[in-house]
Amino acid sequence: MARLYDSRKRILVTGGAGFIGSHLMDRLLEQGHDVICADNLFTGTKRNIDHLHGHPRFEFMRHDVTFPLYVEVDEIYNLACPASPVHYQHDPVQTTKTSVHGAINMLGLAKRLKCKIFQASTSEVYGDPAVHPQPEGYWGNVNPIGPRSCYDEGKRCAETLFFDYHRQHGLEIKVARIFNTYGPRMHHADGRVVSNFIVQALMGEPITLYGDGNQTRSFCYVDDLVEGFIRLMDTGPEVSGPINLGNPAEFTIRELAEKVVAMTGAASELVFRDLPQDDPKQRQPEIALARETLGWAPEIALEAGLERTVAYFRALLPELKA
Ligand code: NAD
Ligand code: UDP
Ligand code: UDP
């Protein structure tokens, strides 16, 4: 609910102690809003939000979104969910619960408050896509019973819930389908390709390519993504999404490895490991809708974003080596 004497909003960010959520909260606080972070610290860390402790407009709640939450806010960004395959496969049942029960609780909260709610969905709803690049109208190619399904199907069901609350209860929803994103505060051990390669290069360890390294991904720098989130949240009730947010510049995993090696001056060799089951062969967002609706497109090229990410992990090195 709007404050009596000023226009700043009180905003709930679930999963705010994670990689993307912490950058989002930084931006919202910079804009002058009050921010409540609800996070169970499953994959997020206090380190990501250390700099916010003592901030007069910031509040942290250790809370699991699979349980009801009663707070008073003007907007909700629902990001809570482990995002890397290593993390979401650690306790797959909890992953589905987080997406599904978490969505129900946050939608129930939004319904009571009559406030806007944003969902961090994912390109994984497209599965191993048979259409390339992936437009929002593509329904996807997802294995419902594989090791990635807890995440993919959980996120698909969350989208269903968002659209049903929208149709049934008139909720104002904003659904973003996020493609691979990277940047400072990624978890160093979450197994994602950018953090893996950078940490391996900085430690002088072999760079692990899964499969032949010819599979592709499109990597978006976190600041660009957060800009897209905020623009989507600021749209009127006619915009619900889903809207793809990602960087359409597509690279093979081998190209990424070569860039990281060149940039860090590492002596690391490239080694090949088995490709995980159901690993998508290619992924590239079609972002025409985001360009048109939000006037948004990524601005930070892979090299520039990697420089900043390498600098972050370089500063962490003493700790990683300890
Ligand atoms: P992350 O793991 O760094 O952050 C997720 C946060 O959610 C963590 O702080 C974690 O502790 C919290 N969390 C997990 N389960 C919870 C629960 N039950 N209750 C409360 N908090 C819980 O991941 P991220 O990369 O920052 O991803 C944020 C969101 O964006 C996720 O919903 C993810 O699915 C989505 N996304 C991310 C990417 C990407 O490339 N990083 C791509 C597509 C979608
Ligand atoms: N809920 C919540 N906070 C609120 C309101 C609701 O966490 O402020 C949860 C509550 O646990 C409920 C869920 O959201 O189970 C769905 O709410 P809804 O009103 O849609 O359904 P109902 O209460 O009828 O189950
Ligand atoms: N990958 C790799 N080496 C690693 C980690 C990942 O070759 O050390 C590959 C992985 O098999 C996939 C791509 O890089 O093809 C992106 O993996 P990530 O887990 O970052 O994201 P997702 O598969 O969810 O897009």
What is the CATH class of the domain at 10-182 and 221-247 and 285-300?
Answer: Alpha Beta
* Residue fraction in strands: 15-25%
CATH architecture of the domain at 10-182 and 221-247 and 285-300: 3-Layer(aba) Sandwich
Tell me about the largest β-sheet. 7 strands, parallel
Structural class by SSE content: alpha/beta
Quaternary structure of the protein: single chain
Approximate helicity band: 25-40%
Strand order of the largest sheet: 3-2-1-4-5-6-11
Regions with pLDDT < 50 over 5+ consecutive residues? none
**Remind me, CATH topology of the domain at 10-182 and 221-247 and 285-300?**
Rossmann fold
Shape field: globular
Task: Count every helix, treating DSSP H or I runs of 4 or more residues as helices.
Answer: 9
- List the ions, cofactors and other small molecules found in this model: nicotinamide-adenine-dinucleotide, uridine-5'-diphosphate
**CATH homologous superfamily placement of the domain at 10-182 and 221-247 and 285-300:** NAD(P)-binding Rossmann-like Domain
Domain NAD(P)-binding: 12-308
EC number: 4.1.1.35
InterPro entries: NAD(P)-bd_dom, NAD(P)-bd_dom_sf, UXS-like
Pathway: Nucleotide-sugar biosynthesis; UDP-alpha-D-xylose biosynthesis; UDP-alpha-D-xylose from UDP-alpha-D-glucuronate: step 1/1
